[in-house]
Amino acid sequence: MNVGIDLLKAIRSGRLHDVRAVLDAGASAELLDGRGDPGLPLGVACFMGYADIVRELVSRGAKVNTPDNSQPTSPLSMAVRGNRKEVVKALIELGAKVPPGMQTGLSEQEMMIARLRGQQYSAKTAGAGEYHPEPPVVVEEIEMFSCYGTNTAVLDADMIRAAREMEKKK
């Protein structure tokens, strides 16, 4: 039984339960890829679009950031290449640093919300790959079937102000 191969098979199947079982059996969340760089399991999960598996791997020690997140094998680049917007959002919530000019497929508002959620969840990934999940803050979401005549400029301004304040704190 090779736990590294078992982990990759579990990730490719998309079954979080199987991934947890293999990690519990002793597999490392930081397996080396073919070039000798760590992060193969996280890269596969990112490319395939399994945000729940991405969160599990990070909680078990996988590193969200690489020395250069614009490299094709970085978790963020793998998610972007796979066109996995939900995974890109999850990575940003977990503390992934988006290189300047990188096209993530997310709007400015989606990026802002992901960063705010990352702060709320206290995602800590500053180089150490640590992630300490806390219960999520309850956010009221309003479903609107029609917004004809609704002025959202004030809400947009509040979100932009909050994002700028968050960037200043960094």
UniProtKB/TrEMBL annotation:
Q: Name one GO molecular function term.
A: ubiquitin-protein transferase activity
First and last residues of every ANK repeat: 37-69, 71-98
What's a BP term from Gene Ontology annotated to this protein? Answer: protein K6-linked ubiquitination
Which key words tag this protein in UniProt? ANK repeat, Repeat
The family database entries (InterPro entries) matched by this protein are listed as:
Ankyrin_rpt, Ankyrin_rpt-contain_sf
Give a yes or no for keyword Coiled coil in this entry: no
Specify the protein name: Ankyrin repeat domain-containing protein
Q: Which organism is it from?
A: Candidatus Accumulibacter cognatus
Write the lineage as a comma-separated list: Bacteria, Pseudomonadati, Pseudomonadota, Betaproteobacteria, Candidatus Accumulibacter
